[in-house]
Design brief:
0% strand; mainly alpha; 12 helices
Length: 300
Amino acid sequence: MTAEPGLGAPPRRLPQPLPAIHPLTEYAAEGALAARYEDMKAVLQVPWMGVVTMAYAHYPSFFGELWRGLRPLCASQPFVAAVRELRTYCEAEVMSLAPSPIAARLGDAGYGERESNNIRAMIEIFSHGNFPYLMIATLTRSLLLGGSFGHAGNDAAPFEGRHAPDATQPFVLMERHHPDAPTKAIYDDIMATLGLPFVNTDYRALARWPSYFAMAWGDLKPSAQTAQHTALANRVYDRALELAGGLPNPGGLNAEALQGAAARDAPLDEIRPVTELFHYLLPELVVNVAYFRAQLLAHA
């Protein structure tokens, strides 16, 4: 790929072989890294660090230059507007998959309105937060391939106020060693069905309600194996590239500087597949969360 104006990337594909990833978890982060994590969460207005950015953090020079350049963009009105547009697009398009309504079945299983609302609130957190991470993954991989976007000093008025949903819903993750055998089996099934090398935060959070999670995944799994589902993930991938390419670049982030920072940590041939992996995975994840959200729309 040549370094010409505008972002671009090859068609969406899963890198083969799968690269090793080494996410630096929030609880293990200390000092400057912990401060950077808190800053990123505050700017994105999310209550968790995505696996994508924790995997980037394994490469400190790369991650430092990336966030230096992206921070003013992520805090801007154009970024928030692009993220909202991408979410609106995805959630409208997911209805073509005909998500099965689930609210009545939850009621039959004993879930009260308060419990169902708690599930909705958790889904809303991810429905908001995954899209900034997808935009970051899109920009990151494209820059490492030599792309460019915007111009240093482009107008990017800061976003004032709050664009995120209420985050008072307890953020509890069911790690792989927490749940009983049936939920562990669902984790294994998700990884096998979706080709994941790990279980996303979203699924670990929703597994807090095991019977709901089993029901929701049982509906999603057949859809996730269809060509229609893959095509939608590909369209989200393409739309993210289009929107990211139109963003301003107030931090002056460019391919040469980001590639140079990455090369100080590891060979580019090691880091590029990591960015390709998340650029592949996140479009499917946002489609799946949009599917979960649509399942509950009947009584929203």
